[in-house]
Each structure stands twice: as C-alpha cells, then as structure tokens.
Amino acid sequence: MTLTKQTREKIGVIYGGLVILGLTGLMFAAAIKGYNNATINLESVDKYEGIVIDRGITLKRGKKMSLKVFYFRMEGLDDLLAWYHISQNYSKLMSNVKNGDYLKVYFKESKSQDLNLNVIQIEKDNRIILDKNEFETKERALVYIGTIGGVLMLAGFVWMIMKTRKVFNTADNAAY
Predict the structure, then answer these.
(1) Residue 119 and residue 131: Cα distance in Å, rounded?
(2) Judging by DSSP bridges, how do beta strands 119-124 and 80-83 pair with one another?
C-alpha cells in the first residue's frame, strides 16, 4: 500500500502536533514542579546533622553537557549531597565547608544514583552558609521558563494548525 502525498502530509502534521503537545505538557509540568518547590518549609524536608568527610567540585555529566557542582559527603549519610549554581562559582562554599566541619543540612530525597542536587539549606555553627532562598529562586526560575516555554509551544501548535489546515481541506477528504 502506497500512501498519497496528502496522506503523508496529514500523518506528519498529526505526529508534529502530538510532539508539540507533549513538549508543551513537559513545559507546564516543569512550571508546576517549580511552583511546588518555590516556597520550602524546612520542617517538611529531610534534615541531617553530622561531620563532613569529603567535599569538592565535580562534574555532573548530562547527555549534552557537563556542569560543575559543589559536592560534600557526610559521615553516616548514604547520599552524596551537591549544590549547583548557574555561575558555577563555589568559592564561598569551598571556604566555608571543610572536612571535619559539623553541619546541619536540609535536603529532599533524590532518585538520582550519583548526586543529590536537592540541597536546600546548609548551616554551620548556627550560621546559614547556604540559604534556602537560593534554592527557592532556582525553582522560581523553573516556573518562569516552564510557563513561557509552554505558552510559546502552545502558540506554535496553534500556528502549525492554522498553517497546515489546508492539508486537511483537500479534495481527497471527501472520501473519508
């Protein structure tokens, strides 16, 4: 069975529309995730107090790029905790978090097998080293990116439908 040009175009439009709608859903899901994490109550997340046994800067490898992150391991905790900052400048954390320091860390569990990037706040000697506001700001950025991206993807979908409407108004539609 050979497909006509119009049928192939219709299939392409349908698949393209489904891809755009899927990406739109992902954008809005990211916005919702960011919104849910934009304000954190420290009483509702995991807390661990202990001694730092290792710390440094490592690369978090992704599919397309690698990012520098600050990591630290605490005695008695299985998670390798980490913090990512867009500037990738960790000099403040490196100077304030040393091996042997006693820290109080607030974090969320992570499904990641290597680094837990859900560190929310770090305290040392009743002093805040990493404030939860930085985590909340990162999550708010996700709200903006997800919302703007979702709206643009939805607009792209509408534009695609308007532009390709003629594909569905061809004479061979009469046979359907």
Answers:
(1) 10
(2) unpaired
How far apart CA 144 and CA 150 sit, in angstroms, is 10
> CA 106: distance to chain centroid?
19
- Residues 137-170: tens digit of each pLDDT: 877 777 778 888 888 888 888 887 777 776 666 5
Rounded to an integer, the average pLDDT of 58-69 is: 83
- Torsion over CA of 107, 147, 32 and 64, rounded to 10 degrees? -50
Per residue in 18-50, pLDDT (tens digit) is 888 888 888 888 777 777 766 788 888 999 999
- Degrees (nearest 5) of the Cα angle 84, 32, 139? 25
Burial 44-63 (b: 16+ CB within 10 A, else e): ebeeeeeebeebeeeebeee
**Residue keyed to tokens 């359907």:** 176
For 28-91, give the DSSP string: HHHHHHHHHHSS--GGGSEEEEEEEEEEEEEEEE-SS-EEEEEEEEETT--SEEEE--TT---H
Strand partners, 51: 102
